[in-house]
């Protein structure tokens, strides 16, 4: 186990040669995400002190306005990604439109675009439950030397060069893939470094956990209703256990380690579900497939969906391969 004490920084450099485009740029980009993760983690960990040191909208001791954590996370990731000369554009769940980076990149030489959900599940902050950051990285498709365009962001998930998440949980972890498996790193807060703690993460082929907001059951399509009934049936290795944190990153993380399925289907209230294709589903789908799991909208592979708009929503079924295939079977036969 030579991996044991490897830091994320060392791991990124050592594995640079396995990147599809072997250059220091992607390493540098991953390093800037690592840095932003540490800054945001520091702030997320203080969230419970907000009543003592000031709530959002208050003025802090330096005379600066206190911000909501999702706004803070959005700014920190954008600032950190902008500083290095690698990213030409950023799209964020928190922003209406994509951002063109031209402060550091006047001649539009940078090759990568980053899509980010800076603080997913942020309603959980108030009750001290885990939240996460999700990121997705593509090479631009428009020529270097020209301003970044919408089509650089509207790429199919299968074009991702890297994706990952940070889970701010009982420990803070950064989990990512560059298309060569999934590795997880745990932050040692005393030292401020991420260490490789979960090499080569894989979904068990099947599992016994299903994660869905069952309060919406009545609005779900018949196929999903039938699948939920199947999960609850006393037969073979069932009934399964129901676990729903309401924080995609945390639910995904648990299911990847223990074996399970996460569902956010379409409903009569939300015909395309709730989750965003570009900021949430594609990166999680890339991670899932790299970890031998599966991600689908109930019928189609998530990473094959042709995006049409930045904030597009899509139904999402993701997790252990055999469980996702079973849910798809119920959808098909409903
Ligand atoms: P958000 O981006 O507004 O935080 O919404 C995404 C989150 C996911 O993390 C989570 O799985 C889901 O929304 C929970 O939604 P619901 O409360 O409808 O079950
Ligand atoms: Mg989100």
From TrEMBL:
Mg(2+) 1 binds at residues 93, 117, 119. Pathway: Carbohydrate biosynthesis; Calvin cycle. Substrate binds at residues 120-123, 213, 244, 262-264, 274. InterPro entries: FBPase_C_dom, FBPase_class-1, FBPase_N, FBPtase, Fructose_bisphosphatase_AS. Its cofactor is Mg(2+). Pfam families: FBPase (PF00316), FBPase_C (PF18913). Residues 204-332 form the Fructose-1-6-bisphosphatase class 1 C-terminal domain. It is found in: Cytoplasm. It catalyses: beta-D-fructose 1,6-bisphosphate + H2O = beta-D-fructose 6-phosphate + phosphate. GO terms for molecular function: fructose 1,6-bisphosphate 1-phosphatase activity. The keyword Cytoplasm applies. It comes from the Bacteria. Residues 7-199 form the Fructose-1-6-bisphosphatase class I N-terminal domain. Homotetramer. Belongs to the FBPase class 1 family. This is Fructose-1,6-bisphosphatase class 1.
């Amino acid at each position: 186990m030579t991996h044991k004490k490897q830091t994320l920084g060392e791991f990124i450099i050592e594995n640079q040669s396995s990147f599809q485009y072997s250059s220091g740029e992607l390493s540098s980009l991953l390093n800037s995400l690592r840095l932003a993760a540490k800054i945001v983690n520091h702030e997320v960990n203080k969230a419970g002190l907000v009543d003592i040191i000031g709530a959002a909208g208050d003025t802090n001791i330096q005379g600066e306005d206190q911000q909501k954590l999702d706004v803070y996370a959005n700014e920190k990731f954008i600032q950190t990604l902008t500083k290095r000369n690698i990213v030409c554009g950023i799209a964020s769940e928190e922003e209406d439109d994509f951002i063109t980076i031209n402060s550091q990149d006047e001649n539009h030489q940078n090759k990568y675009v980053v899509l980010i959900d800076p603080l997913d599940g942020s309603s959980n902050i108030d009750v001290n439950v885990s939240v996460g950051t999700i990121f997705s990285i593509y090479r631009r498709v428009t020529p270097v030397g020209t301003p970044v365009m919408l089509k650089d962001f509207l790429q199919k998930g299968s074009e991702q060069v890297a994706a990952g998440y940070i889970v701010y949980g009982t420990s803070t972890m950064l989990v990512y893939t560059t298309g060569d498996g999934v590795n997880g790193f745990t932050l040692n807060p005393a030292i401020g470094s991420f260490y490789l703690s979960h090499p080569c993460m894989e979904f068990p082929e099947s599992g016994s956990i299903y994660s869905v907001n069952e309060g919406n059951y009545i609005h779900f399509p018949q196929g999903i209703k039938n699948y939920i009934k199947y999960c609850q049936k006393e037969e073979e290795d069932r009934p399964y256990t129901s676990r729903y944190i309401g924080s995609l990153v945390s639910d995904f993380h648990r299911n990847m380690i223990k074996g399970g399925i996460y569902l956010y289907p379409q409903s009569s209230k939300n015909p395309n579900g709730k989750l965003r294709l570009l900021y949430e589903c594609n990166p999680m789908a890339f991670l899932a497939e790299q970890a031998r799991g599966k991600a689908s909208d109930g019928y189609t592979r998530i990473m094959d969906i042709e995006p049409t708009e930045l904030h597009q929503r899509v139904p999402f079924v993701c997790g252990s391969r055999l469980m996702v295939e079973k849910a798809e079977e119920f959808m098909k036969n409903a």
